[in-house]
Design brief:
13 strands; Peroxisomal Thiolase, Chain A, domain 1; globular; two-stranded antiparallel sheet; alpha+beta; 352 residues
Length: 352
C-alpha cells in the first residue's frame, strides 16, 4: 500500500512595500480617470473588493514609469527570488529541515518568465544539493497553490522518505497596465498583490506532521479559455478576467467539488471546513453559496483578502496557514479556481 504524504509545514513571505487600498484608488484615479470614460463606473471596485491593503515588490511610483516587458520581467525575477528564499527558508525551518535536505522542489509561478527557473537561481543561497530534482510549473494561475500541493504530494508518495519543497510565488503587480483601458484591468488593479507561500511534504511509515494529504483532483470546464488568463504583447502580460466568474462559480463549482470528492473517496458530509482561494469578495460569497455554506463561513478567506489582496497561487496557502494557527478541523478541503477554467481540490485530515 502506498504511503500517504504528510504536510510538515506552511509558511509565507511578503515583499517590502505595503499599499493601502485608499492609496491604490487614488493612484488609479490619477492614471485612468482622464483617459477612461468608464472609470467612475468602475471605481467602486476599490471599495467593494474587501481589500484594505496589499504588498508590492516595487514602490507605488515605479508603476507610473514607462514599463515594457523587460522592466516588468526584471521586477518579477528580482522580487520572486527574494520571496522564494524567505518563504522556503521559513517553511524548511518549521519542518526542521535545511536546504540540503530537500530532494525535490516544486515551483509554482505564472506572473513572469524565468529560465533558468527560480529554484535554480536561488539554489546557492538556499543550499540545495546538486542532485536536487526541479519541477517548475507555469500557467496554473490562481489554482496553482492547490494544484502545486497536489503535485508535491504525489511526488513525495512516489518516493517515501524524500523531502519535497513546494514554493508558490506570484508577482501580480508586474502586470499592472496603464495602457489597458478595460474593465478587466480596472478589476485587476483593485485586486492583485504580490506574495509567496511554501510547504514541506514527506511520505513514509510513521511520518508525523500537521496533516495527512488524503487525495486531490481537478475539474476542467470545456470552452472556458476566455474566462481567466494572460494575453501577451510587447508591453507585458495583460489580464483576462471575465465578469462572469462569480456567477459561474456559484452555478458550477459546487457540483465540480462534489465530483472531485467522490473520485478521491471523501464524503461531502465528512468535510469540516472548506479552505478556499479568496479571489475577491464576490467570489467568496459565490463559493459559500455553491458549497452550501452559511454566508460569513469563509472568515479566514475574507481576512486574508482584506490584509493581502488576491496574490494568485499562494493565497489559498495563506488561508491554510491561518487555519493551522486557529486549529485545523479533522477534515479540510482546499479549493481554488484558475485559468483553464479549472477547479482544483485537495483533502487534508488533521494529524493525530
Amino acid at each position: 500500500m502506498p504511503h500517504s504524504s504528510v504536510l510538515l509545514s506552511v509558511a509565507h513571505a511578503l515583499p517590502p512595500h505595503r499599499l493601502l487600498q485608499t492609496e491604490a484608488a487614488e493612484a488609479a484615479r490619477g492614471m485612468f480617470a482622464h483617459r477612461y470614460a468608464a472609470f467612475e463606473r468602475m471605481a467602486p471596485v476599490f471599495t467593494t473588493s474587501g481589500i484594505e491593503s496589499r504588498y508590492t515588490v516595487k514602490p507605488l511610483d515605479w508603476y507610473f514609469t514607462s514599463l515594457g516587458w523587460p522592466e516588468r520581467n526584471a521586477a518579477y525575477l528580482e522580487g520572486a527570488q527574494e520571496l522564494f528564499v524567505e518563504a522556503a527558508t521559513r517553511a524548511l525551518a518549521a519542518a526542521g529541515c535545511a536546504g540540503s535536505d530537500v530532494d525535490t522542489i516544486v515551483t509554482i509561478s505564472s506572473t513572469g518568465v524565468a529560465t533558468p527557473s527560480l529554484e535554480a537561481r536561488v539554489a546557492g543561497r538556499m543550499g540545495f544539493r546538486a542532485d536536487v530534482e526541479r519541477v517548475p510549473v507555469f500557467g496554473l494561475g490562481c489554482a496553482g497553490g492547490v494544484s502545486g500541493l497536489a503535485i508535491a504530494s504525489r511526488l513525495a508518495a512516489a518516493r517515501p522518505g524524500a523531502t519535497v519543497l513546494l514554493v508558490a510565488i506570484e508577482i501580480c503587480t508586474a502586470a499592472f497596465r496603464m495602457d489597458q483601458l478595460t474593465p478587466a484591468n480596472m478589476v485587476a488593479t483593485a485586486l492583485f498583490g504580490d506574495g509567496a507561500a511554501a510547504c514541506v511534504v514527506r511520505a513514509g511509515s510513521g511520518e508525523e506532521g500537521l496533516a495527512r494529504i488524503e487525495g486531490a483532483g481537478e475539474h476542467l470546464w470545456p470552452e472556458t479559455l476566455d474566462i481567466m488568463g494572460w494575453k501577451v504583447d510587447p508591453t507585458g502580460l495583460g489580464v483576462i478576467f471575465d465578469r462572469s466568474i462569480p456567477p459561474f462559480a456559484e452555478k458550477e463549482v459546487g457540483p465540480a467539488v462534489e465530483s472531485i470528492l467522490s473520485r478521491i473517496g471523501v464524503a461531502r458530509d465528512s468535510v469540516d471546513r472548506f479552505a478556499c482561494h479568496p479571489g475577491g469578495a464576490k467570489v467568496i460569497t459565490a463559493l459559500e453559496a455553491t458549497l452550501g455554506l452559511a454566508q460569513g463561513t469563509l472568515d479566514h478567506e475574507r481576512e486574508v483578502l482584506r490584509q493581502y489582496g488576491n496574490m494568485s497561487a499562494p493565497t489559498v496557502l495563506f488561508v491554510l496557514e491561518r487555519l493551522m494557527g486557529a486549529g485545523l478541523p479533522q477534515r479540510t478541503v482546499l479549493t481554488a479556481l484558475g485559468p483553464g477554467f479549472t477547479c482544483s481540490c485537495l483533502s487534508l485530515s488533521r494529524a493525530a
